[in-house]
Amino acid sequence: MDLMRWSTPRVLVVPVRAGRAVRLDVERLMRERGWESAASPADADLLVVCGTPDADTGAAVDRVWNLLGSPRARADIPVRHGVAERLDRARAELGDRPGRPSGRTSGRRRPAPGDRPDDSDDDTRTDHDGDVAGLPMAERAPDRDGLTLDRLHLTLGPVLPDWPAGLVVRLAVQGDVVQTAAVEVWGEPGGRWDGPPAAAALDSLARLLSVCGAATATRRARRLRDEVLAGSADPAALNRFARRLRRSWTLRWATDGVGRLDGRHGDLTGDATQRCRRWLDVVAGSPPVPGEDRTAAVLTALPGLLEGQELATVRVVVASLDPDLESSGTGATS
Amino acid sequence: MTPVGQGAVWTVLLVPILLGGLALGGASFARVLDARADGRRVTGAVLAAPLSATGRLLVQQRRAVVASDRLLARTGVVLVPVAAVLAALVVPWGNVAASDLSVGIVWFNAMEVVTWAALWMAGWGTNSVWGLVGGYRFVVQGLSYELPHMFALITVATGAGSLRVSDVVAAQDGLWFVVWMPVAFAAFLISALALSFAGPFDTATGRDVAGGVLAEHSGVDRLLLLAGRWLLLAAAAAMAVALFLGGGSGPLLPTWLWTVLKSAAVLGLLVWLRSRTATLRMDRFVEVGWMVLIPLTLLQALVVAVVVLR
Amino acid sequence: MAEAVIFWVCAAGAVATGVAVFRVDSMARATFALLASFVFAATPLLLLGLSYLGVLVILMMIMEMVVMAIFMIMLMMNPAGLMPMSMVHNRRGSLAIAVGTFVVLGAGVLLVDWPQRAGTPPEDVTFALGEALMGSHMLVMLVIGLGLFATIVSAVVLAHPRGRYDRFGDDLRGRPADDPIRGGVGR
Which of B114, B164, C69, C146 counts the most CB atoms within 10 A of its CB? Predict the structure, then answer.
């Protein structure tokens, strides 16, 4: 369709462990071309897999691929070679596809694991036995305020925008309050990353800013990250960026008191605001605190930090800890 | 300045066109700010990006999750832009209002509250946890901004001694309301962002919940929601001009041009604010709304009432 | 003529959506069918020239029904899906009450000797309404308003499981308060 050729695509970026180099290239090209990052499969028309997924992740990516509405295109980019060409090809494919297919196919969502609800004597729940459209119903459990409410099982990751590659968190939620959380790691890690620390800090910051809804600051962080990687970053610009974010009270509001860890956790100590400030220090030029197996500490602390929190907080906690699974040693635990 | 009058019946048809133009301008400005943050050059393609995105959504396939409530979801989706246009009916453009109701201010408020129901339906109906959470978040947001918003409107009505928008404009002949009702104006701008679920009040569609209400909508459904959001923001900006900034009054230029210029300026300010802030979490904002904004706007209403009565 | 058409459309719409409340199988649909019914019932107020009351009823009903949808669904329905359910309770009893009410009201319409209009409606109905509420009936309205507000506050206080001793500790000196979720003012 001409219309598709004219507009910029919205891209669902799937980060895969060991795919960091590809992801950085993809994000840089997207920024330069003005391609926007999609928030959900319904929002996307281009699916870009950065790296080589393992079998489980690959199956999850395929399920997400089936959720994309037509016209759609997919680019699997296993290695850093020829990223731009592959993106171009996917883009062209998007434009060549005939428009809307005649039949309306429904995006099918994987049924959430969960038991049937117990039968209740409340007479407004008359027809409660049996599934709806093959989906099992949520069960009930006591909630934070002592009421018995329905709970729903929800899996965050591995395909989720602004989410650490390879991380899968299984939650039981009531409303949007997390009751239980279990952490898994999918896939195998890649080699150690020897990029500049400021680039790593900006990469993590961009994810945190994005889930905090600071869209413009996210764009700026990604742009500065790419400049640092290209060696063309202006120290004054980095300082200005760090200073401005330290002053932002809306950002402080989003992160204050979130995911607090005690003093035994090295550079993870404190709440999300403090961790964010440490990244800003690194961005502004101070050397990073050497953390010993930071990633393992994050994975251990994560479930305790998530339980009892709201979904909004969950994303901020994970983004502020940002376990570096792309290059760190921990193998798959699923 | 000539008083605002009721326009001919056909002027109703102009409302969606004018509002749409203003909304497109706002969306383009947002794209320009994005492009600058990305370090891209601002080209014609960037300015036209809202239009090309519209084209993209028009050809995109609509989709629905298993066991979703399509009736409710689609009703909600359609209601968002419809509510925006209905709300804008009472806004005077220059010295003509498409529908100068005697209770214009209440009408504007009622139509803007339609989005509460609309967004909740659009979120719930998709049978997705993200949509559900987004819909609930918007209602919490509504309960936090609505009372300060109403008090701001009441303050204006008290100052003018009328609920008719044309009377409000006429009452600002000597002195714009923004001068002696600054708190009400600020509360109105905050609620303008909140009622159109635009950042920093975009928790209902936040990226932390994969787009929230928008998460499962694609194609035309998504287009209507996104367009409705911009139309609501444009309608609120235009209403702010009529309520606080003296409507179309101004030197030299014709009144309609002043209305457009002032509306564009307010809209530009809102879009700029939107780009500079992180999303306000509702567990934080609820308390600010009730503990800070309500007392402040009540005090503002009291001051204005005392001035009017004296 | 147009008024009659609008009135009958609204009347039929109000009844149809009212029936729908009990025919649909989802709590969300039932709530919004009820909302539609209320909006249809409010429109004749606009036909009577009572624009303020009409628009206000629509405004309040939307806010009310949205809040009600949340509570009804939170307390009675499964948030994960659209579980089929029925809004009908106590079928026989409610049928008897409904028919009885309809007969009484219908008989009232036909049997009461309605008074003839004396005088003309005021120029500005909204203004007259304000004068009536804030003039001779001010005391009554204020008492009712305060009474409603006090009821809401006391109901919330009674229902809330956590009091100030839970928040601030036994000596009420714990700052900041011990809340599961922090607010924005920083108390």
Answer: C69
pLDDT in tens, A297-314: 888 888 888 888 888 889
Q: Measured between CB atoms, does B112 come within 8 Å of chain C? A: no
A32 within a domain of the structure (yes/no): yes
Cα distance from B211 to chain A (closest Cα, Å)?
A: 6
Judge: B63–A4 Cβ closer than 8 Å, yes or no. no
Q: Tell me the ipTM for this assembly.
A: 0.86
Q: What is the pLDDT of residues C32-67, one digit of tens each?
A: 999 999 999 999 988 888 888 899 999 999 998 998
State how many domains chain A has: 2
Query: Could you tell me the pLDDT band of residue A107, with boundaries at 50, 70 and 90?
Result: very low
Q: Say how many C-beta atoms besides its own lie within 10 A of residue C101's C-beta.
A: 10
Put simply, the answer to whether A126 touches C85 (Cβ < 8 Å) is: yes
Cα dihedral across residues B222, B41, B269, B23: positive or negative = negative
Beta strand pairing call for A139-142 and A167-174: unpaired
Same domain, A77 and A215: no
Show residues of chain B in contact with A254, CB under 8 Å: 278-281
Statement to judge: residues A171 and A288 lie in one domain: yes
Q: Give me the number of domains chain B comprises.
A: 1
- Give the model confidence (pLDDT) of A235-282 as tens digits: 888 889 999 998 888 888 888 888 888 777 777 888 888 888 888 888
Whether A301 and A173 map to the same domain: the answer is yes
A86 and A213 housed in the same domain: no
Residue A163: closest CA among chain B residues belongs to which residue?
A: B208
Residues B35, A34 contacting (CB under 8 angstroms)? yes
On chain B, the residues whose CB falls within 8 A of the CB of A64 are none
User: Quick one: pLDDT at residue C84?
Assistant: 59
Q: Which chain B residues are closer than 8 Å to C66 by Cβ?
A: 116-117, 120, 139, 142
CA max distance for chain B = 63
Q: Tokens standing for B251?
A: 């030197």
Question: Which residue range(s) make up the domain with B135?
Answer: 5-309
- Subunits in contact with chain A (3 or more CB pairs closer than 8 Å): B, C
Residue A144 and residue A91 in one domain: no
Give the SS3 label for residue B252: coil
Chains near B with 3+ CB pairs less than 8 A apart are: A, C
Tell me the average pLDDT across C88-114.
90
| Residue A162 and residue A275 in one domain | yes
Cβ-defined contact of A70 to B53 (cutoff 8 Å):
no
What's the rounded Cα separation, in Å, for the pair A13 and A158? 11
Structure confidence at residue C143 (pLDDT): 93
Indicate the residue of A117, A122, A127 with minimum beta-carbon distance to C76. A122
Residue A9 domain boundaries = 2-96
| Cβ–Cβ gap A216/B211 under 8 Å | no
- A132 is a domain residue: no
Per DSSP bridges, beta strands B5-6 and B96-97 are parallel
Is there a contact between A69 and B63 if contact means CB atoms under 8 Å apart?
yes
